[in-house]
Amino acid sequence: MMVEFVIPGEPQGKGRPKFSRQGNFVKTYTPEKTENYEAHIKACFMASGAGMIPQGVEIGMEITAFYSIPKSTSRKRAALMRDGLLRPTKKPDYDNVAKVICDALNKIAYYDDAQIVEAAFAKFYADEPRVEVRFWKINERR
User: Using the 8-state DSSP alphabet, how is residue 111 labeled?
Assistant: First the structure.
């Protein structure tokens, strides 16, 4: 069972938790931008029509992030970026992009992201920014 879906828009990373003091207590919360992006990821997954992978099943995942080409880039450099010869080294880091996706899919695509035992991640430039996500049951690889 291979599940594939696309998250349109510029790739975003998982935001750091925020803290606020309320009297003698400290409240921890997720930034609104991260919550909105996680909701967007969930909606994209649900639109794919895929079901949930049961608890205890090992999962492999592949995430490919496509960043927009900066407007100030020369035509020559933009062509190299489109061909995958120049790759993004900018933020967000790969681990933060993967973290927000894996966390958003908890309880809707799989029971827990601890089931992911194999993963690959790549960053490229493209005219249309997006994130492509693929995952599968390990024993049914591709």
Answer: S
Residues 46/111, Cβ–Cβ less than 8 Å: no
Q: What CATH code is carried by the domain that includes residue 46?
A: 3.30.1330.70
pLDDT in tens, 47-104: 998 888 888 899 999 999 999 999 999 999 999 999 999 999 989 999 999 999 999 9
Please count the structural domains in the chain. 1
User: The whole model's pTM is what?
Assistant: 0.87
Residue 120, strand partner residues: 62
| Parallel/antiparallel/unpaired status of strands 59-68 and 130-137 | antiparallel
Residue range of the domain that includes 82: 2-140
Distance CA 130, CA 10 (A): 6
Alpha-carbon distance of 49 to 38, in angstroms, equals 17
Q: Supply φ then ψ for residue 71, to 5 degrees.
A: -65, -30
